[in-house]
């Protein structure tokens, strides 16, 4: 069964689609009320975020657009130190989409939301002309302890930069799918609750934290360096990249510094916390390849350098132009 | 200047686009922090909602997709009795979109958000292939007093149904634009804060309330009738429709019961509150044509009837199939 324009009418066809595909998968006491706004419990300090997902192909090794749409928003909330709580999702569905595809995506969203401890409380569905494409927007709300203060502007001289795992897996997966290159690279797409909770519960003072998505590590660290008016210096040999992705990059001329990831984060912590933080991340889900990759110095404000394997020093700029369209 | 795929990279081009187009218009102390999640103040009871907007044309008499994207989410929050507070927006922009168009839309969003007293706290921008189309998702958070209990399942025998103004203006506007029909019909697209605040401040006990958008009045009232297991009976001669929209409907064979509106609401209130509620709505912004259009009876559960001008009784069903694609 395929999506028709009637599924976007707001009437009975829309209602049937919602019941059959989404309500079944996402059901919970708040969503089931089917009012226009969901009513949820509040707290003193809220985190709010939103992300739209336009990745193509919509199903790829290691995930799909549904899984990605939950991970992306959950991770954005986590990066502010919030406990993810409630999520809304808006679907823009092209005519001709197979209802079965939609069901698979809804199932995948429900599974990931459960794993990430976030409740889907409201949704919206629109249908547009086209040929089977799907776009998903998710917006999330989380609660933050009053004591937490994580910000890209908090990096200080001497702080340590930890990366939670291998770079480039998601990017290489999507590009391989598009170019029909056969390999066993899988997207790293994952919710990082366990990792962040471990750091917060163990009172690691996180200065800055960001998931390394579109724009890549280079862009994130430049944002830190600019916001904190500091210099960040990395050691090339410390940066974890799998052998398979390394070869992939060599063949296609890609730079892991600018490749998108969907289950990796970079954290800046004080030097005294850094070894403990590294151990906590390594012992968390999805953190086994974490590494200390550099530190904050004050030599030149607002810049990122990497000390290369062959002894050079290379300036890492923010990504300009297009990494890979529709990577997330 | 046109949108290119590079504007969706997550790097410098994206950042420039955000700064030049969105940050300028939406600037406020929370958004300006430019973190991945916005941190806002909370409350005990939260309302959350989301809506995607795919209307075409993106600019139409009486509004544009930006204005609409704020009104839609603000009105959804209001309908639950919440005070709208914070809003996130996700843009999916087709390549080739004029940056000037985007600027105009951002300006319009900022203006409407200000009028509706809601703060834009987070955003996301994606670029896809295409030809100048724009899709906007907004998600909103509002706070609700613990005492408020508005729900489509609260309608009771004897309650009165009030419609806040003329039906069909938005629908007729979009259809006229698409068919290049010249007339002076304008979209009713508007935020209904003033109207709802007046009702709540004056302690009107609102049983059920809904903005009458996609799917039309017929669909909303059927949802009430089903959720409350009641029958709703309307008087055709009481239902406000402007002369121009009436003629438009006659020519094109449209039924105002299923036409989309973007600045109209229907409220179900107790009989003793109904005259006061009507007066309050009439004295509110956008409420001058409000009317009592019917009442709740218990003759047959879960149905909506209209007593027609010529003395008949017609069953009003939920809209099945397509009203008008991409109406909102």
UniProtKB/TrEMBL annotation, chains A, B:
Q: Where is the PurM-like N-terminal domain?
A: 35-144
Stored SUPFAM superfamilies: PurM C-terminal domain-like, PurM N-terminal domain-like
User: What are its GO biological-process terms?
Assistant: protein maturation
Q: Which InterPro entries match?
A: HypE (IPR011854), PurM-like_C_dom (IPR010918), PurM-like_C_sf (IPR036676), PurM-like_N (IPR016188), PurM-like_N_sf (IPR036921)
Gene3D superfamilies documented for this protein: PurM-like C-terminal domain, PurM-like, N-terminal domain
Give start and end of each PurM-like C-terminal domain: 157-304
List, alphabetically, the NCBIfam families matched: hypE
Q: Which family does it belong to?
A: Belongs to the HypE family.
What is the name of the protein in this document? Hydrogenase expression/formation protein HypE
Q: Which organism is it from?
A: Anaerosacchariphilus polymeriproducens
């Amino acid at each position: 069964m395929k999506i028709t324009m009637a599924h976007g009418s707001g009437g009975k066809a829309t209602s049937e689609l919602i019941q059959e595909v989404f309500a079944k998968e996402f059901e919970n006491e708040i969503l089931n009320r089917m009012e226009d706004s969901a009513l949820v419990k509040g707290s003193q300090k809220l985190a709010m975020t939103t992300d739209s997902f336009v990745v193509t192909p919509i199903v790829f090794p290691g995930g799909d657009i549904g899984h990605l749409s939950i991970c992306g928003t959950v991770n954005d909330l986590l990066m502010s130190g919030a406990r993810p709580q409630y999520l809304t999702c808006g679907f823009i569905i092209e005519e001709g989409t197979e209802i079965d595809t939609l069901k698979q995506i809804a199932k995948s969203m429900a599974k990931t939301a459960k794993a990430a401890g976030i409740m889907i409380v409201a949704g919206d569905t629109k249908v547009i002309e086209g040929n089977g494409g799907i776009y998903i927007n998710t917006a999330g709300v989380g609660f933050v302890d009053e004591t937490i203060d994580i910000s890209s502007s908090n990096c200080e001289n001497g702080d340590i930069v930890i990366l939670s795992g291998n770079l480039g897996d998601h990017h290489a997966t999507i590009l391989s799918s598009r170019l029909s290159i056969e390999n066993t690279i899988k997207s790293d797409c994952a919710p990082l609750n366990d990792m962040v909770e471990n750091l917060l519960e163990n009172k690691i003072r996180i200065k800055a934290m960001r998931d390394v998505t579109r724009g890549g590590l280079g862009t994130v660290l430049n944002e830190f360096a600019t916001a904190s008016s500091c210099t960040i210096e990395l050691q090339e040999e410390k940066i974890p990249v799998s052998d398979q992705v390394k070869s992939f990059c060599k063949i296609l001329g890609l730079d892991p510094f600018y490749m998108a990831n969907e289950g990796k984060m970079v954290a800046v912590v004080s030097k005294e916390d850094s070894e403990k933080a590294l151990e906590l991340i390594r012992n968390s889900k999805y953190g086994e390849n974490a590494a200390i990759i550099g530190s904050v110095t004050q030599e030149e404000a607002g810049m990122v350098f990497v000390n290369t394997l062959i002894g050079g020093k290379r300036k890492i700029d923010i990504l300009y132009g297009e990494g890979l369209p529709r990577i997330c």
